[in-house]
Amino acid sequence: MPIFGSGTDLLARLPRRPDLPMPPREAAGVVDYLGALDRALVQIYDRLSERVQVWDSNAGLATMAAGATTVTVTFLGLEDDTQYVPLLIGNWEAGGLWATALTTSGFTINSSRSPVTAGTVLWVVVRPQDTTTTLASVAANPLGVPDGGTGVSTLAANGVLYGNGTGGVLATAQGPANSVLTANEGAPVFSASPTVTTLGVGTAVLAGDGHVTVKNGTNDPSISLLGRTTDNVSTIRFWSNDGVSQRVALQYVTDTFDILVHDGTSLVSRMKLKTGVQVGSPSGADKGAGTLNAVAVYDDGVLLTDWAFDLYFDGRVRPGDAHYRGQRLYPFEETLAVAQADRRLPWMPTRDAFEQARGLGAMVSRLWFGQEQQQMYLFEHERQITELSARVVALESDLAANAARSTRLEARLAALEARNG
What we know:
Elements: H1 7-13, H2 24-47, E1 55-64, E2 70-74, E3 85-90, E4 97-100, E5 106-111, E6 119-126, H3 135-140, E7 161-162, E8 170-171, E9 180-182, E10 189-191, E11 198-199, E12 204-206, E13 212-215, E14 221-226, E15 233-239, E16 246-253, E17 256-262, E18 267-273, E19 277-279, E20 292-294, H4 306-314, H5 332-342, H6 354-357, H7 360-420
Parallel strand pairs: 19-20
Antiparallel strand pairs: 1-6, 2-5, 3-6, 4-5, 7-8, 9-10, 11-12, 12-13, 13-14, 14-15, 15-16, 16-17, 17-18, 18-19
């Protein structure tokens, strides 16, 4: 509820000095001041548990001259002592208003910013019910934890607060560089080398040797992180659902990173990364920086080219051939012309398209088709050679027959010459 009632009621209760009449417009402004003052006092009433809610008869208006930062207030009646609190409200942006030089007959109002023109300060004197309890004593005796306070007036700089039951809030000391806040069933402290044995609830366990086992919510491990051992081996192991067998492991040994996969009996190395990449167990092991050594390399881009022989022998592709994409055969004359003009085989990419078409699978398919295409040229040459050979035999037969006829004709000619001789 309001402490003074309305602003108008409070204005009527203010003692008036006959020599300081108040114009109506100024009175209206004071009503606004008093309303704001009443709201401020309500907040003080709530916060200080009824200890600063006593109305005192001394109140009034003080005029601070333009450019001034102080003004002296004189009470209409003397106070019993100086254990009172002046409440101050100015009608300009004063920045801050405070009272000094408190006496039983008045006090001095101070402002951190002087008014441009003469300013008005509404002042009201309030007094604690218990004269032994002042705002200073309240600050010296902080509100306790049971009452919603901290119970302390100072806290350690850069410390972390923690509870103390109904006692005052406690704070840790400032932590050293690169430390974390830890606790061991007691007050928290900062530590640069904390010891942690469990992360979460049944999810990760850290062994004393630095090994970590991540579990799947039960007692079965799913991932094991093994720190470096005496023989410089560090391993990450991935376990099966039953948590019994290790399915995959990533292992670092000296200068080699190894990927191991379970083959049904034990973990077997499937890939090694050293200076080069080694896949499986090829002969020669690591071949050096930037190399790939594998038992075999497969590419889904490789297409079977059986359709080439189908076109050559049958003149059509077998129905359902998924590898046929509309390709064709190249006559020898076309191959010769392209090679002579472009310095490439017609089934190989041009210089401009080479970078985009040099994929392993695509190049293998082109080379594969090229071998078959050249084999077809050999087939064609063989056919032509066979035909030419047959023609040579026929010509040789004709030549032999002609030679025989020539011999017979020569014999008949000799006989005729002898008869006519």
